[in-house]
Amino acid sequence: MMKVRFLLMVLFVALMGCDGEEVFDEAQQLAIDRKLIEDYLAENNIVAQEVGETGIMYVIHQAGSGPKAAFANSVFTHYRGYLLDGTEFDTSSGRGVFDFVIGAGQVIRGWELGFQELNKGASATLFIPSKYGYGSTRQGSIPPNSVLLFDVDVVDIR
């Protein structure tokens, strides 16, 4: 009984020490990311479309042909990933075509949603809020809560 009381007291003290302001608010972060993307688009005179009401924005630089990518399709792409400040964090350059299956959880959710707006031969830029990227966790050189930009070329969809 003494151990239980002690554990309850430790738990109570630990919970009291939590600062409520440190709690991650996904909706608030999405609003921040939306604003960052909107500001970036305005500063660079870019007109983009939104994927549903997700906050994921995209610009098609070259239209493709055929049906858009859909759930369970394999997508083959070249890409370059970078942050709003232009810092590149990944690229397929020199590694060949990258492929993934939409809906299989192989890539970030922003790709699974964004690529469904594209078809074979399309060239586009995806603007992905952190919620649909890596969220509040650091991923290698990508800081937490980072908006991700991807220049993509859809080579094939099967």
Automatic annotation (TrEMBL):
It comes from the Bacteria. Residues 72-158 form the PPIase FKBP-type domain. Keywords: Isomerase, Rotamase. InterPro entries: PPIase_dom_sf, PPIase_FKBP_dom. The keyword Protease does not apply. It is an enzyme of class 5 (isomerase). The keyword rRNA processing does not apply. Belongs to the FKBP-type PPIase family. This is Peptidyl-prolyl cis-trans isomerase. It comes from Roseivirga thermotolerans.
